[in-house]
Amino acid sequence: MSVSLVIGGTRGIGKTIVQQLRQRGDQVYTASRRQLKDEDHIQFDIASDALQTLISKIDHSLNYLVFTQRYRGESWDKEFHISLKGVDRLVNALKTHFAQEASVVILGSNASQFIVREQTAAYHASRAALESLTKYYAVLCGRDKVRFNCVLPCTLIKPENVNFFTEDNKARNMIEEITPLGRMGTSQDVANLVCFLCSEKSSFITGQSLMLDGGLSLRSQESIARELLNLHSSTCEVKPNGT
Fold this sequence. Notes:
Layout: E1 3-7, H1 12-23, E2 27-32, E3 41-43, H2 51-55, E4 62-67, H3 76-93, E5 98-107, H4 121-140, E6 146-153, E7 156-157, H5 170-178, E8 185-186, H6 187-197, E9 209-212, H7 221-228
Parallel strand pairs: 1-2, 1-4, 2-3, 4-5, 5-6, 6-9, 7-8
């Protein structure tokens, strides 16, 4: 049985990831600042708590480590302590606790590639730094058979906003219209990718930043603007026999 540790994991996308890992049979521990009546949950502040508090609760070799924690605020120091330095501290503390082959997945954001005006400068900077940290540890820990990958989701439908992104929601309709796959992504889509990366099926994938956006990042801004203004058709026409 595989042993997984999800940092965060008590709400939102992290909770969906935990549910899917457990459904496939993993022993899954969660760690966050929340206090829960769950024997597999560890109350832990990644920004400040002594790491031994967390490590002592896990009495097995660790197969999979997933970072889903999130800081919501405007402090540069707190953003970097929680989103970036916490990852670095914990990876170093767990180096000798990984199984013979292991995988680490860091949940980032497409804000590392694009500017999302609703988010702060600190958020953008930390997400870009997470990608570099992923590559750094992928190289550093490769010989130890520990893989590192970063998942970059776009705007998603998740437990916290499912009542907002209803089928008749104008923002959802617009996103679906401009997304090549014609729908919004969900927290389940993220969980599917994370579970793949936390498996032997991805054993030769490391150091990658994987965009999860239904193909939206492939489109040019001018093309999207023209489509929304009905200046050209968005239909893909395939002629018979490839002609």
